[in-house]
């Protein structure tokens, strides 16, 4: 430790009693127990910006800030693209044939995707790209996903973390000028290869390597470059890629680039036509037949200027990847997940009104209504979080913690939503074929869950692990001070952060207790109306979260990293606070529609209850029981107060999905709705109207013919009998027959020849 200096008043800083008795012992203690941060950890933590996560960690979110931020919107050009080329692409897609017959998108679709600039959404106009906003990008992926997941994945990957993004952010001018126009025109198909057989979640440990060397290249002697050896798998678009973005570890034993021998993870751009590149074999990702496969190379020489950013960026690959991850993670998979929710809301909701069992639409049974309410609530929440996050990106944020939150939570919501939808469809969900609306989304769930950071890891390691250091108002400063040289300056920095931290802790403890005792009614919120109470409760729970997060960190210190059951629950609480924020924002941004109130209430009540249960679980499992008892007293002095949304509220939410309405349209806005009545989604929309029109007639027929034998001809026989007995008129019979024909079209499932030849 450096010798102490004297302060302006002449006394030594270390003579100050607080520094001497509190700050210095704590500083030395933490310095001893805090493990040094690896470069990969540091890069991950430094990446991106702190945004609303910082407010939630503060324990006192500034609601005004988020409520007054303008909602995102699409420009005229972007809306035109969604309504035009995106719609046309959806019309061109035959998801069944591409997955079961062709195992690829047809050539005409590939051509259309390239020509219309689907692969250049993020490339600036000066290079011939679309330069669309994150929100537009999200809308585009979402809409395509409601038609074909394989096509959505094909479009989203080049616009996500990959060569395009990396060249844009870090490429040399030569790389930008050469590759970006080619990528924009679809002359290059990019892929990005990080994952190796031995390094999946722990991507920082890739064994793929490159040695800096000089060799003969294209007839020239002594060309400075890298000799690469790698083996990658699961690489999306890999089998058809012309441009391979490759991550590997770079070594410079001959010191051709500088002093360092081990430079770290580096990224390069390799044309796949380069001799020695093995690419083209395919994996089969659960019958979603987008291009995905392994690739490898042994002793492949590449000139040094193929490194992204040239030699100057050698060794900066991990930082580059971490910095760009937030964008992709915030957009693609949240959009795909929300698409599945919208499809379920509109089509499975409609199906529940159309499909009849026990002489009633299945959507009228309370058991089915529970599933419908969950589908509607989750979709409302996903759409809110998707748009709020994309809008934040468009305002210049790179919210790394929030991006992990939306990736993890929205793909999990997709999982539960699609599972509920499959239950409602019964056999019609199970038998694959062109008529099946959810089977493909069901198969896509594990893909969304696994890619861009598998969910278990994202939940238990990344969200809170990164959040606690990055979004907490004091911990980052404390760690920085501890990791610095130990000078008086760093001690002063630590002291300032420590004092602030203590005040923050006390304030959260007090506010958490006081607001819990008074049911949050004294929390001042600028809001009035239906949202006010939710803001108040969320403020209380934010203070409780900040308190319990601090207590967990104090009790577990750096071992919290391994205590994933604790950090996972903290991640869930932080996630729910963010999702509730998004839902409140959405409700207000959409003009506080009365019809959407059941959705808002259902989601908010479900969220408050979930936060409470996660906190309860956390308190029951914290070590040092007396501390946990005190924490429980501060957080739940009157016990647990929130309950699940009531059955009545659940039925009101389910009802939104069972008939055409503005609320249902808002929920499913942005999905592709075909006009062709041969398509199941269109058939359901059409049948729903016809069935609702004839429902009162149907009820009359059932009522009046109860107990009367009308033969074996099902509904057709009943209609004839009802006309004959003058229970209904000919016109009413006609309406009923139209509805019945539409119903029988919708409930059909596909069958095939014995050998499944199409
Ligand atoms: C269809 C598809 C497309 C893909 N596209 C690409 C691509 O284009 N480019 C690319 O580079 N990669 C791609 N990937 C790879 C993807 O990013 C990896 O699959 C992912 O990182 C997980 O690695 P893994 O499959 O090896 O799982 P593993 O790392 O073996 O993990 C298995 C399980 O263990 C959990 N786990 C691991 N470590 C921890 C921990 N510390 N704490 C808690 N849980 C943990 C994980 O969450 C997961 O549930 C793709 C994968 C698939 C399936």
Q: Short summary of the structure?
A:
The protein has helices at 17-33, 39-46, 52-58, 63-67, 76-92, 95-102, 107-115, 134-145, 149-156, 163-170, 173-185, 317-354, 366-394, 400-425, 427-430, 439-450, 455-470, 475-483, 488-517, 532-556, 564-589, 597-621, 625-635, 647-658, 662-668, 680-704, 714-724, 730-747, and strands spanning 190-193, 209-217, 220-236, 243-251, 262-271, 278-279, 292-303, 356-357, 360-361. The protein has 758 residues and is of the alpha+beta class. Residues 191-195, 200-201, 234-236, 285, 292, 447, 450-451, 454, 456-457, 460-461, 564 line the site of flavin-adenine dinucleotide.
Description of the structure:
This protein has 758 residues and is of the alpha+beta class. Helices cover 58% and strands 9% of the residues. It has 28 helices and nine strands. The chain has helices at 17-33, 39-46, 52-58, 63-67, 76-92, 95-102, 107-115, 134-145, 149-156, 163-170, 173-185, 317-354, 366-394, 400-425, 427-430, 439-450, 455-470, 475-483, 488-517, 532-556, 564-589, 597-621, 625-635, 647-658, 662-668, 680-704, 714-724, 730-747; strands spanning 190-193, 209-217, 220-236, 243-251, 262-271, 278-279, 292-303, 356-357, 360-361. The strands form two sheets. Strands 1, 2, 3, 4, 5, 6 and 7 form a seven-stranded mixed beta sheet that branches. A two-stranded antiparallel ribbon has the order 8-9. A hairpin with a 2-residue loop joins strand 8 (356-357) and strand 9 (360-361). Helix 12 (317-354) packs parallel to helix 26 (680-704) and helix 18 runs antiparallel to helix 19. The protein is flat and about 105 Å long. The N and C termini lie far apart (76 Å). The protein binds flavin-adenine dinucleotide (FAD). The site of flavin-adenine dinucleotide has 21 residues, from strand 1, strand 3, helix 16 and helix 17.
